[in-house]
Write a structure and sequence with these properties.
It comes from Streptomyces fungicidicus. The chain is built from 20 helices and 8 strands. By secondary structure, the protein is mainly α. The strands form 3 sheets. The protein has a 4-stranded antiparallel β-sheet with strand order 1-2-4-3. It folds into 3 domains: 3-98, Gyrase A, domain 2 (2-Layer Sandwich), CATH 3.30.1360; 133-292, no CATH class; 331-497, no CATH class. The relative contact order is 0.10. Helix 1 crosses helix 3 (72-89) and helix 11 crosses helix 14. The radius of gyration is 24 Å and the shape is globular.
Length: 502
């Protein structure tokens, strides 16, 4: 089967299992997940979706998320959208999705998922997800430009191809120079305004002529405030636009509303937001430097240990504005390599689980299929398919990430900055994006050693502390239960460890 046919088949298999086209309200994707808005969550057949060969796991959040992995999700999504559009347009009156049967979901699993969803649906967390939704569409460009920047830096250091490096510099830097415009566009789109007006308001931030504008006794600098200023400018533009839509007569709306939106939000940006956002951006950079230079090992331990729970809750993408601000200021983010250690702890834990459960073919098969994506920084399959459903191994995986983060943080404290020129990948996939203040060789060596520490710590913590005797007995018995079934002993162990349900 060709690649195109394979992705079409995956989309066609998923659609009826989520309740059909009429049950789908929105379709989007991030780096690894197909994100669906659904009318009726009860129509979704979770277990059958998880059983599809291309599906690595599912996540229930404000959207229903199907983990397909990088590359695959970008190809399946347009096929899925086309099928939804075609089915909706051709739907007969009697069309309707088949309801899910009660036996397809374990009662306990359904209760745990409902509890976690309710716990996550706080206004603050929903706001963070909206911020994340602004930046997720930008990640492919950030990765591509970051890798080109890394390649260009290598060529410059080696004095190779001097005629090509200016062109690579232009390609790597062009997007970052205009990122405020893209942020403004997606901010307006996310908050219900006209996207192009959001981009227009944010574009004043990167316009060279702002150097002639004076605010708070100082001349502005092009790009001052960066993505934070663009967020604020576009959000203000949305607010002004909505007020205009309510008050301006329809006959002149097309002329008055865009003009007032750009004028009011643009002036507020130039004479207030740019300066304030610039100060906040500077503070973020200084805070990150202070944190790692004064408490590198301790800070790395906390950051590496807490990142997996953020991934589990889908809140890790809320860190994207902070990473982007650091990249704008220093050329790289020192936080991402530390956070990437969480994935190393997860991989080490998975290997320990594989060895501790020699007779559980179900879990071992899942690990074998999810381990290589884990090495490349795609952690959701291992989280949702292995460690989190088992309970205690999720905690020990976090411990592995904590020790790996402490190792990299220690070197930051000693003066060796280990950073990434872009955001998105982790694990082995982060190597092409690494940068620092002491040359690429030392940066790569520290990061690689950090991964090894994370692997080892996650493995040892899980091998020796990840299972009780009862858990080992039940999980190695035949027939072996799948992780999603959460045997009673595992549930008790998870409750004692305080681990959230899958």
């Amino acid at each position: 089967m060709s690649e195109e046919n394979k992705h079409h088949a995956t989309a066609a298999a998923i659609l009826p299992l989520v309740g059909g086209a009429r049950n789908v309200t929105s379709v989007a994707h991030c780096m690894t997940r197909l994100r669906l808005g659904l009318h009726d969550r009860s129509l979704v057949q979770d277990e059958r979706i998880k059983a599809l060969p291309a599906v690595m796991g599912v996540v229930e959040d404000d959207t229903y998320q199907i983990v397909l992995g990088p590359g695959t999700v970008a190809r399946v999504t347009p096929e899925f959208e086309a099928l939804v559009d075609a089915e909706k347009s051709a739907a007969a009156p009697e069309y309707g999705p088949e309801p899910v049967t009660a036996g397809e979901l374990a009662a306990q699993g359904a209760a745990l998922r409902a509890e976690r969803k309710a716990r996550n649906a706080t206004p603050f967390k929903l706001f963070l997800r909206r911020i994340a939704n602004i930046f997720v569409p930008l990640i492919p460009a950030l990765i591509g430009c970051g890798i080109i920047a890394g390649l260009n830096g290598l060529l410059v250091n080696l004095h190779w191809l001097p005629g090509l490096t200016p062109a690579l510099t232009a390609m790597a830097s062009g997007f970052m120079a205009l990122i405020a415009v893209f942020v403004g566009y997606h901010t307006a789109k996310e908050f219900g305004g006209t996207p192009v007006l959001g981009g227009a308001v944010a574009s004043v931030i990167v316009y060279a002529g702002v150097a002639d504008v004076e605010a708070f006794g100082r001349h502005l600098s092009p790009g001052q405030g960066g993505v934070l200023g663009a967020l604020g400018a576009a959000w203000l533009g949305v607010y002004v636009e909505k007020q205009c839509r309510r008050r301006v007569p329809e006959a002149v709306d097309v002329l008055v509303t865009p003009t007032v939106t750009v004028l009011v939000a643009g002036l507020a940006t130039l004479f207030g937001l740019m300066f304030l956002a610039g100060e906040v951006s500077t503070w973020i950079g200084d805070a990150a430097d202070w944190l790692l230079s004064h408490g590198g090992a301790g800070a790395g331990f906390l950051l590496g240990g807490l990142f997996l729970p953020l991934v589990m809750l889908g809140l890790h993408q809320a860190l994207i504005p902070i990473h982007t601000t650091l990249i704008e200021g220093a050329g790289f983010t020192v936080l991402l390599p530390i956070l990437a250690m969480a994935g190393a702890g997860q991989v080490g834990a998975a290997i320990a689980i594989y060895l501790r459960l020699p007779r559980n073919t179900s879990i071992r098969t899942t690990i074998k299929s999810a381990l290589w994506p884990g090495f490349l920084g795609v952690g959701e399959p291992l989280i949702y398919g292995v460690s989190l459903p088992l309970g205690r191994p999720f905690v020990t995986a976090c411990a592995g990430g904590a020790f790996g983060g402490a190792f990299v943080g220690l070197f930051n404290q000693l003066g060796t900055d280990v950073g990434s020129t872009a955001i998105g990948p982790s694990g082995w996939a982060l190597f092409p994006l690494l940068d620092g203040n002491h040359g690429l060789g030392r940066t790569v060596a520290v990061y690689a050693a950090g991964l090894l520490v994370g692997y080892a710590a996650g493995f040892l913590a899980t091998y020796y502390f990840g299972f009780t005797r009862t858990m080992l007995t039940e999980l190695n018995s035949a027939p072996a239960p799948a992780p999603q079934e959460r045997p009673a002993s595992v549930e008790r162990a998870a409750e004692k460890a305080g681990t959230p349900g899958a």
